[in-house]
Amino acid sequence: MEYMSAPQAAEKWGISERRVQILCAEGRIPGVSKLGYMWLIPKDAEKPADARRKEFKHE
After folding, report:
1. How far apart (Å, rounded) are the C-alpha atoms in residues 34 and 47?
2. What number is the average pLDDT over the span 22-42?
3. Which helix (DSSP H) or strand (DSSP E) does residue 39 occupy?
4. Are 21 and 56 contacting, i.e. CB atoms less than 8 angstroms apart?
5. How far is CA 15 from CA 1, 21, 22, 35, 59, in A?
6. Average pLDDT in the chain
């Protein structure tokens, strides 16, 4: 499996590196692992939905 780092994921998803680290620490990204101080994120991982925002669905 190929991995990307937190800075690479941040650039790919358009969010900050710190936010990616928080998502990893909270277990919101499946398949992550930590090697020393560095988070390893699967290259095919999807950006998790932001739980801080309330999405409205109009019917």
Report:
1. 18
2. 93
3. strand 38-42
4. no
5. 23, 11, 11, 22, 29
6. 88
Tell whether 25 is covered by a domain: yes
Residue 19: CB atoms within 10 Å: 14
How far, in Å, are 8, 23, 54, 55, 58 from residue 2 at the CA level? Answer: 13, 19, 32, 32, 38
Give the helix, strand, coil percentages of the chain, each rounded to 5.
30, 15, 55
Does residue 47 lie within any of the structural domains? no
**Is 28 within a domain?**
yes
Decide if 13 is inside a domain: yes
Q: What is the pTM of this model?
A: 0.80
